[in-house]
Amino acid sequence: MDEEYRRDEFNRFARRYGRWILLAVGVGLAALGGWLFWQAEQNKQNESLSEQFTLALNKVDAGDTEAARAALDLTAKGDNAGYTALARLTDAGLAAAAGEDEKGAGLLRAVTDDAAAPQALRDVARLKRIRLTFDSMEPATVIQELAPYLAGDNPWYPIAAEMTALAHMKAGENDKAGPIFLRLAGDGRAPPSLRARAEQMAATLGQDVAALTEARIATAQAAANDLAPEAAPAETN
Q1: Which of 35, 72, 148, 224 could form an SS bridge with 87, CB 3.0 to 4.6 Å?
Q2: What is the per-residue pLDDT across 170-210, written as a single tens digit (0 to 9) for each?
C-alpha cells in the first residue's frame, strides 16, 4: 500500500513539474556547453596570438622590420590585453630604433592608458616613454609621473630615481637631486653601474659619499677574505 501510494505521488509530481525540471537541466547543460565552448575558443585564440607574437619576434631577430610590424599589428588587434601590450611595447622599440620617437611614445602611452593590460607592462611602458621623451618633457611632469615609483620598496625605484634626480637637475634643483642620487648610490636593488653613476653624481652635487666609500671598501675586503685560502695548520712534533 505504501509503495503504491509513493508511486502515485511520484507520478503526480512528475506530471506537474517534470517538464520544468527537464527544461532547467537542459538550460544548465546548454550554459555549461556554451561556457566550455567559449573557454576552448579563448585557448585557441590565445595560442594563435602566441604564435603570431613569436613570429613577430622572429622577424625582429631576422631584421625584417616591415614583416615584424605587420605581425605585431595583428597581435595587438587580438582579444587579449597582455599580448596587445607586448605587441605595442615591441613595436615601440622598433619605432625608437628607427628614430620615430613620436610614434614610439604614442604606442607606449597606449599601453600605459590601457586599464586591461597587466600592471607590470603598464609600468614598463610608462618608464620607457619617459626615458624616450625625457629631453622634451617638462621636469615637473617627469617628477610627477615618477613619484609613485619612489615610495616604499617599489621594484622600479632605481630607474625612476635616476630620472627623477636628472629632472630636478634640469629644473635647477640640485639641492633636491643630490639626496636622491645619494640614496640611489646605496640602494642594493640598483645595478652596480647605476650605483656608481649615482655616487659620482652625488659627490659632484656636494653630498657626503664617505660612508658609501667605506662600505664599498669593507665589502670588497670581506669578499677578499672569503676567497683567501685558509692558513695551513702548524705542524706539531
Answers
A1: 72
A2: 999 999 999 999 999 999 889 999 999 999 999 999 999 88
Does 125 share its domain with 150?
no
Confidence label for 74 from pLDDT (cuts 50, 70 and 90): confident
- Cα 201 to the chain's mean position, in Å? 28
Same domain, yes or no: 149 and 209 = yes
In a domain, 73, yes or no: yes
Per-residue pLDDT of 3-52, as tens digits, reads 565 555 555 555 555 554 455 444 444 444 444 444 554 555 567 788 88
Asked whether residue 16 is domain-assigned, the answer is no
pLDDT at 114 exceeding the cut of 50? yes
Rounded to an integer, the average pLDDT of 130-140 is 95
Q: How many domains does the chain have?
A: 2
Domain CATH for 56: 1.25.40
Range of the domain at 164: 139-224
Considering the domain architecture, whether residues 201 and 123 belong to the same structural domain is answered as no
